[in-house]
Write the structure tokens for this entry.
Amino acid sequence: MLSETTHIIPYRTYFVVLITLLVLTSATITVTWIDLSAFTVLCALLIASFKAGIVMKYFMHLKFESSLFRILVIMVLSIYVLVIILLFFDYLFR
Amino acid sequence: MNRMIMSRDMEHRDDIDSRLGMWVFIFTEILLFGGLFLVYAVMRSKYSHEFHQAALHLNTFVGALNTVVLLISSATVAMSITAVQKGNNKLAVRFLLITLICACIFLINKYFEWGHKIRIGLYPGSDLMITLNHGSIMFFSLYFFMTGLHMLHLIIGAILLTVITFRVKRLSINRDHYVLLENGGLYWHLVDLIWIFLFPLLYLIT
């Protein structure tokens, strides 16, 4: 059920989220300095995905929207992941 | 009929569906950039060594600075919504101005970054590019196309936010009617989201 309640998010939440994002950014840079060979890209991408999740959840208000929004986002991202998997199946085992 | 808000002048509006429409547009944008990330992924797996070498030419410091600038600008847009919800339009305008200043800093950084590459003759179709190996050509072409398309989105977002700032100042965006600010904010966060992935993939993969 879609409801019309407005949720006012305090400034402090945004500030904490911003600090978290900045810390994660420096973590990404640090990770690429340490040589983890094949895992470097994986680590950087995992941190980036986590950051994107935080941005969508708090800055884009997904946490406070109706579940319809979350379902749609999950569907779109699943389709994209599926496309990546199909592409690499085709590309690597050709 | 709870979803329809009828304001005093009997204006019909539906803020939730308005935001939903914006999200659907954002999905198309995600898939647009998604396609480019797919090209990047395939080319990177094909030319990993060349990509590694070519990425060394990018300035990590400028990339990191732009990341920080974009994150701050995203936070201030989000804060401006809180300010409007609390009825403090003056503070909202200030937050939006910080965002616009951040957008300008980003563009100035990009100007110097691209300007340096173009000065040394490194741009798609240049004489220098043709002499490079295929992997490097792919890397720099993707670099210019992806950051260029992102920059185009950033400029559009900045124009949109400028219009919104004037409306917040004029009080035509207020605590009862602020869905345009929310949608402008969503677009700005999309610009931020794309950069979150562009930064490690282009600047940090060395």
About this structure: The domain at 15-203 of chain B is CATH 1.20.120.80 (Four Helix Bundle (Hemerythrin (Met), subunit A)). Chain B touches chain A through 46 residues (CB under 8 Å).
